[in-house]
Structure formats: structure tokens, C-alpha cells
Amino acid sequence: MIKRNLTLALILLMLLGLGGCSTQPTTTANKAVNGRLDLTQNDLQNEVIPLDGDWAFYWNQLLEPANLDQATLSGYVPFPSSWNKYQIDGKDIPGPGYATYQLTFAAAENQILSLKLPKVRTAYQLWVNGEPIASAGTLGQTRDTMVPQYLPQVVSFDVLAGDNDVVLQMSNFHMSSGGLLNSILLGSEAQLLAIRYHGLAYELFLFGALMMMGVYHLALFVFRRKDRAPLYFGLFCILVAIRTLLIGESFL
User: What's the predicted TM-score (pTM) here?
Assistant: First the structure.
């Protein structure tokens, strides 16, 4: 019994220690204003910058970059955020629907950078400077035509000196809330991949620790079948362990 308690205490301490480690680096406080973000004073090769702030928002419009000038702007909205929190003409936006976000950021020189796209629970397509560079699922204007996909990824692209245009099309008919809940990160490929791999390592450690706890308690139940508490706790640990591989950086 004492060994069992010591083992559980050690695992919990390790989990708490890892929980205090952030997978996000220290970043600058730049915020987009009215759809523009000035990064000309930033060292983009050595900094990781969240593209947060006010993005241009086009509700119920799936727009390609060439069509933005002819579209009707719904307003500038805080990003990232669920679009359920937005209002147009005094009315709340529902979770089901589709929209286009747009941001322009300014860089000081030509270079190759990357974007780390977080978990998006619906479907999206991302354009930079008129070129599609990433997508997940299938965009659609109805539930029958769209297909959601959970796909965190890191993509590289050419940054131009001066203005760079980011366009994000999204559609949602499967979740209660739409939009993006986590920041899109801009930086060098090496830095962003390091963030992703750190997240994967953390989740795999959690998976291993929870699996050990689960198997240990199932073994206890085999030898003491009258006590069902280890059975329930062991199954719970195994289920949570499997879940860690399906969320976050989505190892599976």
C-alpha cells in the first residue's frame, strides 16, 4: 500500500512539473489594429509572434484574395476568438456558418518564414500573398458540403518586404462555436517545429504515465476482484491516455 501511494505521488509530481512548462515561447506584444500588423521592427527569424489583434471579418462569405475588394466588410473583430461572440447589425452570429478573415502584416525584408496553425475543429483554407499554402477538411456553405478535419500543422512561405496579405476562409456546421480559438504563430520553421515537437513530447509523456497508472490498477483488480474501484480508475486512466493522442498536437 505504501509503495502504491509513493508511486502515485511521484507520477502526480511529475505531471504537475510538466504542466508548469509552457510550449509557447516568450513573444512580443504586437497587436493588429484594423486588420494591419507592423512587424518591420521585429527580428522575424529569431522571434515567434502570434498574429493576434483585430482582423477584417467577412461573415457568410468565402472569399479568395482577389475578391476581397468587391466584398462587403462585416467589421474588424478580435482574433483569435469564437465568432459566436461577434455581432453584426446588433445581432449575435450563430455557430453554424462560414466566413473569411483577412490580415495584412508588414515585414522589413524578403525571407522565408513559417506559420504554426493550431487545432481548428472545422474546415479552413489559408492564403498568403494570393497563394493557398494550407488547408484542412473541405470548405462548404452547408452541412452536407463541408467536411471538418482536425489537423495542426506548420507551413512555410515567402515573406515579402512590405505588406503581406493573409486570408483565412473557414466554415463550420458541426461544432457549437465557429472561428479560431488559438493563435496563429509566425516565426522561423525551426522555432515553430520545436514548439510542435515539445507539445508532442509532453502529450506522449502524459500518455505513458496514464497508461502505466491504468494498467497498474487493472492488475490490482485482477487480484482483488471484490474491490471495483481499481477497475473503474484503471479504465478511466486508459481512456484519458488515449484521448491525449487525439487532441492538442494530434499525434494520431
Answer: 0.77
